[in-house]
């Protein structure tokens, strides 16, 4: 009877063991640590199965293993039995499965997850998210590039999951998103406490060519170079240094973009408020050249007040010259205020107005008729340009070069650099023109020679040359030509060969041409005039007297 009972109990136990569900491979099971030896933990997972797990699988990155006998842990059952009859289990794989479940829920809820950076890989870092390994791109570490990630290694901190794929085992996280969110909250709080026009203290964080970024306690504001000072600032580093604490005024706040514009010059008095009173029109002042451009030079009258000297107002004499050849940067110059535009904050200045007009000075010191000397600066098709005192030029027109030669021929006798003498014939200060004459040196010989000669006058000339067409004669040094037809009233006597060089001949002046500088002369006209006069005095054609009788009576000497 006893044997039957024991057999029944054994059969019942055997049936019970067959009915029990054995753990499925590839799942997470609970186990108990029954021993720790040789760097491994021996874990009883039940069902009369034990397995071994390396102690390092129980350690978080940068920490020592936290495991002891009696602890209950979850492990991943990879295989129920190996060659040694032990279960093949893994704590790390269990943690990974657990982590993936947790991370998928966090990803779905757009929640933050905690992790620690534990390694560096190409393009970024690896992050332990409590069992699952994620990739942290280098661009997602911080809001600004990180040169040294050492202080971040092993440090538990929040991350944002950007994307994940469980099938491929890929997780991408971002630390930057957390910082930006936190920063945005901080910026919103700081900006909420700021108002336009408020004066605040800040620390210079960065300097660029166009300005400086100032930290106002969690939020940066831009201090543009034009708002640093009323004067011209070529580069922000002239007046600011990184790390310096400065007092600034909030000029503008953009609530949407959270951009803040700052100013320093707004904390000082605007020098333009007194410009009109301090710099009246036509007043002269000393200033410093701050900038030179193609169209002029900027001159600082005082810090914050600059004026432009246009290139046309720089010199009386230097035309079409770059301003840099007249003035230089930092040079002290005397200028005159020409115009002030308070609305546009512009001052027009003149440099040449502080010096006398050289054409007016020349007109005062060199009245018409004054002899001058200068160098031939240029030769053109219409005349010579002569350099004169005061860096100005005078022009000798072709018609004023020589009395005797054509201008086109006379100009060939001159070269650049020749020193010549001339007479001032006209000065036009408005048009800035000076007319000179070379031929007027020594006076007008023609005018002097024929000063008392008029048309109809009888003068005595000397024959200087015999030609087929007539004879050349000279009167007081002036040459003239008597044509063959004018050599006699009698056609038979109109022969040039009846004259000899050196003969003295009385002629009648038929024309005085001051332009061509020629006298029109005629022997024939003289004879006709004498005949007419004789007829009028001693007879007429009606009296019956012959011409010879009349001329004889006219030529007969009168009795005393």
TrEMBL record:
Domain S1 motif: start-end pairs: 26-92, 110-176, 197-265, 282-352, 369-439, 456-524
The keyword NADP belongs to this UniProt entry's keyword annotation: no
Annotated region (Disordered), positions in chain: 532-560
Organism name: Roseovarius pelagicus
Gene3D superfamilies for the chain: Nucleic acid-binding proteins
Similarity remark: Belongs to the bacterial ribosomal protein bS1 family.
Gene responsible for this protein: rpsA
Pfam family, one: S1
Source taxonomy: Bacteria, Pseudomonadati, Pseudomonadota, Alphaproteobacteria, Rhodobacterales
InterPro entries reported for this sequence: NA-bd_OB-fold, Ribos_protein_bS1-like, Ribosomal_bS1, Ribosomal_protein_S1-like, S1_domain
Function: Binds mRNA; thus facilitating recognition of the initiation point. It is needed to translate mRNA with a short Shine-Dalgarno (SD) purine-rich sequence.
PANTHER family membership: 30S RIBOSOMAL PROTEIN S1, SMALL RIBOSOMAL SUBUNIT PROTEIN BS1C
CDD domains named in the record: S1_RPS1_repeat_ec1_hs1 (cd05687), S1_RPS1_repeat_ec2_hs2 (cd04465), S1_RPS1_repeat_ec3 (cd05688)
UniProtKB keywords: Repeat, Ribonucleoprotein, Ribosomal protein, RNA-binding
Transmembrane segments: none
Matching SMART domains: S1
Protein name: 30S ribosomal protein S1
Domain of life: Bacteria
GO cellular component terms given for this protein: ribosome
